[in-house]
Amino acid sequence: MSISSQYHRLILVDDDPLVHFLVKKYLLVAGISIEVVSFHDGEEIFQYTSNNSDGNSVILLDLSMPVYSGWHFLNKFQVLDSKIKNRYKIYIMSSSIDPIDQQRVDEFEEILGFLPKPINDEILKKVLL
Q1: CB neighbours (10 Å) of residue 28?
Q2: pLDDT for 60-94, tens place per residue?
Q3: pTM for this one?
Q4: Banded pLDDT at 33 (limits 50, 70, 90)
Q5: What percent of the chain is modeled with pLDDT above 70?
């Protein structure tokens, strides 16, 4: 049985292909039906969010990536028009245990939460349903 998510799409932003594979597998295990869009760095997701305003999406964002880090993306995302920003709900997914990262996460009102890696089906259910 498939369960529809409260969001139109899940936007996965991580430079590790294994994370993309696991999240997609856990969506199947959890029976969650949602479109998945994958990006591998912050620049790609910034281009997407600034040019794509359809639907209600959730972003799972890694912090440590090449080209643009998750932090770089968040700094640029903050200056976008609120009509665009309001279409996206952002969760940080990270294996970082650095308290400074957690403090920085708290500084961004756009971030709804901090998800520990590895992501599993139970975490995805809490975020998406």
Answers
A1: 11
A2: 999 999 888 999 999 999 999 999 999 999 999 99
A3: 0.94
A4: very high
A5: 100
Amino acid at 72: H
Pairing of strands 111-116, 32-39: unpaired
Structural domains counted in the chain: 1
Q: Residue 34: CB partners within 8 Å, gap ≥ 6?
A: 4, 5, 7, 8, 9, 10, 27, 128
- Which residues constitute the domain of residue 16? 3-128
**CATH number of the domain encompassing residue 70:** 3.40.50.2300
Element spanning 103, H or E? helix 99-106
> What residues contact 121, with CB distance under 8 A and at least 6 apart?
26, 27, 29, 30
SS3 label, residue 91: strand
